[in-house]
Amino acid sequence: MLNLHLYMAQRLTAMIMAPLTIGHLAVMIYAVQGGLNVAEILARTQGSLAWFIFYGSFVLAVSIHAAIGMRAIMFEWLGIKGAVLSVISWGLCLFLLALGGHAVWAVTFAGASA
Amino acid sequence: MIRPHRTHALWYAFVLHRLSGIALALFLPLHFYMLSLALTDPAQLDEFLAFTDLLIVKCAEFALVFLLAVHMFGGLRLMALEFLPWSSRQKTFAASTVALAFVISTGFFLQAT
After folding, report:
1. CB contact, 8 Å: A99 with chain B?
2. ipTM of model
């Protein structure tokens, strides 16, 4: 169900995400003061290569991490296995990657180039 | 009948890590979709962000921040368990992950309200 590559990918993405999660929590606690609106979010992120790299790597890591985690749960708790398990896991990874990539692009460079 | 291992504190830590992971995985698509509205429909995103001013929504956000923090700290405990020399204080570490997550999510909630 989890071979060595998937096991290591799960741990590696977790190690990458630990500092990113702490950064994300800090940004949330800072940004939520006084409420949130689109202009405020975009003022912080738009045109920023640093935020693009920060959240881009976060999305990449979380897509892999979540797909492998859900793969283990689907196998252990739902009894899904074989090709079906692989198709669902890959589908979830690509789904999160596409949605997350679009979200990161939307708040960093999409508006800046419009 | 409850099996003995399912009354152990570290079994609860395992379940909390797994359930928080499932909840976060289910929340992520919604989170990404909402952020994408900054590009496709900023007015709708502003409406949604105004909706998050409701106390009940802030309580849900508190829960999400708690789940994110407890999943991260719980994951760090698991990796320490796997990759570092064994320590017998696993129950203390597990309790600490919950305490730290509670401190962070409470900090978020206090700033949000």
Report:
1. yes
2. 0.92
